[in-house]
């Protein structure tokens, strides 16, 4: 009889292979979970900030070329006389100069007569009440003579481009718009952060990922160092 020699390779314990497989599956499951979460947060934050991003990107250009695109201001002036019954509410007195709102009936009459807001803090002096009415894309004011009740108003509009530029800067936009800018900025930050994490997860399959990110970081830094003094 011929003898047969059997060469045995390294023996792998089946339990070790099972443990390794479970560990790989666990890692794959964790990666899949975070990938799904990041995609969800990425598209939600992009949907929330999409219109705002378009607005702020567009006004970034218009602000950078404000002198070229801003239209000519248009000013409307009006004058009237406060009725006698309302004139009593703002009659001169010995009170010191102060900042306070117009009496409600006077404010309502101002809005109806001049077409401008009558609310807000007005500057009261001995002979005059001055109500400044700045707004996005324009300015305005109302002046009331406390002696004879003469009311003068002026409203200036600088056009819709100026209006959008002021929205971008949050100029004379009020508390609600400032809250919007804060929420919008948080959504943009989340959008960018989740995008960066998604880039990291896909970077192995896309070799150009980090070079492009490095260019995006280096380009503004180099331009600022060389050309901004």
Please specify the SSE layout and strand pairing.
Layout: H1 14-64, H2 66-69, E1 74-81, H3 84-87, E2 98-100, H4 104-114, E3 122-124, E4 128-132, E5 138-145, E6 150-157, H5 160-169, H6 174-202, H7 209-227
Antiparallel strand pairs: 1-6, 2-3, 3-4, 4-5, 5-6
Give descriptors for this structure.
single chain; 229 residues; alpha+beta; six-stranded antiparallel beta sheet; 7 helices; 6 strands; 56% helix; 15% strand; elongated
In words, what does this structure look like?
By secondary structure, this protein is α+β, with helices and mostly antiparallel strands. It has seven helices and six strands, in the order H-H-E-H-E-H-E-E-E-E-H-H-H. It has helices spanning 14-64, 66-69, 84-87, 104-114, 160-169, 174-202, 209-227; strands spanning 74-81, 98-100, 122-124, 128-132, 138-145, 150-157. The protein has a six-stranded antiparallel β-sheet with strand order 1-6-5-4-3-2, covered by helices on one side. Strand 4 and strand 5 form a beta hairpin. The protein is elongated and about 95 Å long. The N and C termini lie far apart (95 Å). The model has no long low-confidence stretch (mean pLDDT 87).
Brief synopsis:
The chain is α+β, with helices and mostly antiparallel strands. The chain has seven helices and six strands.
Task: Provide mean pLDDT, rounded.
Answer: 87
Task: Trace the largest sheet across and list its strands.
Answer: 1-6-5-4-3-2
Give the end-to-end Cα distance, rounded to a whole number of Å: 95 Å
Number of helices: 7
Approximate shape: elongated
* DSSP, total strands: 6
**What characterizes the major β-sheet?**
6 strands, antiparallel
């Amino acid at each position: 009889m011929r003898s047969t020699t059997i060469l045995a390779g390294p023996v792998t314990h089946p339990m070790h292979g099972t443990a390794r497989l479970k560990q790989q599956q666990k890692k794959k499951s964790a990666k899949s979970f975070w990938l799904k979460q990041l995609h969800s947060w990425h598209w939600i934050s992009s949907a929330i900030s999409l219109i705002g991003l378009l607005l702020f990107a567009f006004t970034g250009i218009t602000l950078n070329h404000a002198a070229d695109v801003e239209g000519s201001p248009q000013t409307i002036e009006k004058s009237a006389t406060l009725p006698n019954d309302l004139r009593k509410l703002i009659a001169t007195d010995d009170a010191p100069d102060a900042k306070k709102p117009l009496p409600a009936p006077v404010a309502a009459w101002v809005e109806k007569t001049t077409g401008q807001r009558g609310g807000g803090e007005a500057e009261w002096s001995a002979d005059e009440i001055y109500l400044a009415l700045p707004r996005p894309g324009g300015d305005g004011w109302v002046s009331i003579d406390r002696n004879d009740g003469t009311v003068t108003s002026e409203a200036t509009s600088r056009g819709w481009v100026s209006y959008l530029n002021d929205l971008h800067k949050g100029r004379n936009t009020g508390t609600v718009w400032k809250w919007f800018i804060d929420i919008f900025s948080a959504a943009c930050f989340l959008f960018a952060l989740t995008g960066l994490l998604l880039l990291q997860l896909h970077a192995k399959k896309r070799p150009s990922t980090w070079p492009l990110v490095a260019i995006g970081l280096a380009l503004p830094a180099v331009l600022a160092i060389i050309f901004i003094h």
